[in-house]
Amino acid sequence: MNTYRRIVIASSLFFVANFAACSCSAAPGARGDGGGLGSDLGALVDGAPRTDLGGGEADANVDAHIDRAAFCMGMGPPVTVGDDTLGTVTCAGAIATRVFNNSVCSCEDTGVIGYLRTRSFDSGMGTSDTGAGAPVGVDRQYTTGGYADVGGSFTVSGATGVGFAGYLKVGGDARFAGDVNAAGYIDIARDFWVLGNVTNLGLLQVARDLHQPAGRTLATFPLIGGTTDRGAFAVPPPCDCTPEHIVDIDAIVAAGALHNDNADVGLSTSLLSNVIGIGVDITLPCGRYYVDSIGGLGSITLHVPGRTALFVGGDVNALGVFDIDLGTSGEIDIFVAGGLLSIGAGSYGDRARPARTRIYVGGSGDVTVVGASGFVGNVYAPHARITALGATTVYGSLFGRQIDMPGYLDVHYDRAILDVGADCPPPDGGCGMCGGVGCADRTACIAGVCTACTSDADCCAPLVCYPDGTCGSLIL
């Protein structure tokens, strides 16, 4: 089981998320050589020209909030920097668990030309893929030319109807605010909530209850395991896209530009901006680093042995191979003020542990996900369209303003992302229900207090309440 330490966010600027403990050789409290790195830049750079490094940021970039060695050892005070978005003290793990609680989520439309398939596993528990626990949420319209096999709940809150050229299979609850049409069969593993009409050429199988208002049609061969409810209900948006809850990534990066550990390791902010030729192969030890941009034609390899945050002032546009090697205990949070366009091969982490890679994109340009053996990472891009070059496999999750996939989309969601805030304290000043300052330890926010849940209604959809009082992904 991974051990997660706590980083706290306070008011006025913003900072980063939870990281797992890393092994740093310096004693807690000793600023000195910044965790045993000393002045030997060979510990930082392997194969890149020494002239690519510079150390001109010393005084301006010293983090006034925490000793770097203590940070790397998981000791010392929590990092306290501001948050323009929430305007209150909160544990950063609460942000990751809030925005990455679906395998796929879009503030507007999602379009998948081929088929959509989602599955989930838990890298922290060592579990394998299961046909549940990988929910999909669409705030407006879902379009497809194929079928959908969602290993979890599936919610589309836009009133425009959805149609499937093949079958629709949902490994949880299905909620649709418009009409539903399918050319094969519809198989719902729990409840089916539909505000519109249902037209299906084959069998409609619902394991529990069908909820459909009076006056709507059900043109299919129904097999309902429970009851049919004709009462009124609503289908609220499944993705937290209200302006006041969108994470202010620009503010995060601005804070990272001022407070980082570049000077400790002699890292130039321009090192990764225009990589050509033999490329760059570097180790970013435990700490927080800022670069102007990431791009070029050459290969880029980042070795991340511990807990590391990387702030990018511009775009990530790597045309060559871009690999992030997390080793056995590393994890990384990447905050990008610009766009994320990576059309070369490579990987952003370990496909067996995608919860350890979190990527936050502030720009509005297209985010293109590419990976020779599948894209790895949890991507949060609330202002951007997330797309791909063809058929796409993702190990992690996608959250975008819009998601367009020209082929199939196959997502393997790592439920361990819900545990990155396991050590977070209750939010200072009280929590908020389903949005803003939440509870990061899987408890529910009831009357402004983080406490055990007693029913699914206490948890924020798509999470459900388990007998131990925690909120988690629906696993049937």
Protein architecture, described:
The structure is a single chain. The chain is mostly beta strands. The protein folds into two domains: 8-100 and 242-419, no CATH class; 108-229. The chain is 6% helix and 33% strand. The chain contains five helices and 38 strands. The strands form six sheets. It has a 25-stranded parallel sheet that branches. The protein has a four-stranded parallel sheet with strand order 21-24-27-29, with no helix packed on it. A three-stranded mixed sheet has the order 2-1-3. The longest helix is centred in the middle third of the chain and has 10 residues, at 249-258. It is globular. The two termini are 23 Å apart.
Shape: globular
* Rg from Cα: 23 Å
Q: Report the structural category.
A: mainly beta
Record field, number of beta strands: 38
Q: Percentage of helical residues?
A: under 10%
User: How far do the termini sit from each other?
Assistant: 23 Å
In percent, how much strand structure appears in the residues?
Answer: 25-35%
The profile of the biggest β sheet is:
25 strands, parallel
